[in-house]
UniProtKB/TrEMBL annotation:
Keywords: Pyridoxal phosphate. Its cofactor is pyridoxal 5'-phosphate. The keyword Phosphoprotein does not apply. One of its GO terms (cellular component) is cytoplasm. Belongs to the trans-sulfuration enzymes family. It comes from the Bacteria. The lineage of its organism: Bacteria, Bacillati, Actinomycetota, Actinomycetes, Micrococcales. The modification N6-(pyridoxal phosphate)lysine is found at residue 206. GO terms for biological process: cysteine biosynthetic process via cystathionine; transsulfuration. This is Cystathionine gamma-synthase. It comes from Cellulomonas gelida. One of its GO terms (molecular function) is pyridoxal phosphate binding.
Length: 387
């Protein structure tokens, strides 16, 4: 089943609201229903009415989400999963076999590195950590004939920018696939498939869902054969999204474009204030002109997103700051309408301690939400005053 809703002349905002979201054919309900059914009647053995036979294999609410995801990323196939890591796992096991190698960026979500190093590692897949912003280092690593390059851009937690088109050119010349984790940018700001990437993955838990009320993941890609293999693992291993989760995610995605625009405006305003602040040693935000990836970000995306990482004097200062904000809630995760603060070294990236991805104790990551920007700035400044 191809999930791409092919309306090339229609704008992103229109697609986000309408792709896969046709009114219900039987009742006329404008909003497609949540199909809470595990199984489907057969009119005689094998006589399926809508192509559905069992909830793990397919569900109409999940199809609505998968169509929306494929359309927004400009891919032929969208597949949704129970979590971002479930999506990553299915994709990696579809592409890699024991003995294969992959290259992974040196600044990625801690759980992705744990999956690659400990789960796929135990299965015999080898990995090599590379700074993907350094294309000559990538070129050297490609001599080992990796099957796949895993890029996260902007990366987590340092917001580094990888040149997707340049990486794809290099990888393809060496027979490697390029996977981009597009969780931070979202298709509202960056569409990696149009830049040459082979596969996009998402934690839809974050900006796509957008309201911190559902966990999910997705794989979007062009190649029919690879899509068939990922779909087989989705079915055979069964880490699918449930109908209510799929429905909540489709609802969140409808407002993605306006949310991402405001997340970016608020994050930029905060970043500009924080570069001036004496207690802040460094601000990592790709929207700042002196960010090393700024020019690439301007070229390959239409905005810089809502994530921002600051460095304070030391670990204790960073911890104290993270525990001192009032509006920014101390919690894992990101991408919801509410602002969150996180101390990566002890929270999201605790699992990469002692690995090449280890992050310093002195950074704090902010997920800048959609509250009044003046309130956000005041909250951060008050917390810095307490440090
Ligand atoms: C959260 C996250 C993941 C993992 O997704 P889950 O939905 O938590 O399984 C992967 N990549 C990035 C960039 C993330 O932020």
């Amino acid at each position: 089943m191809s999930h791409h809703d092919d309306r090339p002349d229609v704008g992103f905002e229109t697609l986000a609201i309408h792709a896969g979201q046709d009114p219900d054919a039987t009742t006329g309900a404008v909003i497609p229903p949540v199909h809470m059914s595990s199984t489907y009647v057969q009119d005689g053995i094998g006589g399926l009415r809508g192509g559905y036979e069992y909830g793990r294999a397919g569900n109409p609410t999940r199809t609505a989400l998968e169509t929306q995801l494929a359309t927004l990323e400009g891919g032929a196939h969208g597949l949704s999963f129970a979590s971002g890591l479930a999506a990553e796992d299915a994709l990696l096991r579809a592409v890699l076999k024991p003995g294969d190698e992959l290259l992974i960026g040196d600044d990625v979500y801690g759980g992705t590195y744990r999956l690659v190093s400990r789960v796929l590692g135990a299965w015999g897949v080898r990995h090599r950590v590379v700074d993907l912003t350094d294309l000559s280092a990538v070129r050297d690593a490609l001599d080992e004939r990796p099957k796949l390059i895993w890029a996260e851009t902007p990366s987590n937690p340092y917001l580094r920018i990888t040149d997707i088109a340049a990486l794809a050119d290099l990888a393809h010349a060496h027979g490697a696939l390029v996977v981009v984790d597009n969780t931070f940018a979202t298709p509202a700001l960056q569409r990696p498939l149009s830049l040459g990437a082979d596969v996009v993955v998402h934690s839809t838990t974050k900006y796509l869902g957008g309201h911190s009320d559902v966990v999910g993941g997705a794989v979007v890609l062009q190649d029919d054969g690879l899509a068939e293999q990922v779909k087989f693992l989705q079915f055979a291993a069964g880490a699918v999204s449930g109908p209510l989760d799929a429905w909540l995610t489709t609802r969140g995605i409808k407002t993605l474009a306006v949310r991402m625009q405001r997340h970016g405006e608020n994050a930029l305003a905060l970043a500009q204030r924080l570069v001036e602040h004496p207690a802040v040693t460094r601000v990592h935000y790709p929207g700042l002109p002196d960010h090393p990836g700024h020019e690439i970000a301007v070229r390959q995306s239409s905005g810089f997103g809502g994530m921002l990482t600051i460095e304070l004097a030391d670990g204790p200062a960073a911890r104290r700051f993270a525990e001192s904000t009032r509006l920014f809630t101390l919690a894992e995760s990101l991408g919801g309408v509410e602002s969150l603060v996180n101390h990566p070294a002890s929270m999201t990236h605790a699992s990469v301690r002692g690995t090449p991805l280890e992050v310093t104790e002195s950074i704090v990551r902010l997920s800048v939400g959609l509250e009044s920007v003046g309130d956000l700035v005041a909250d951060v400044e008050a917390a810095l005053a307490r440090v």
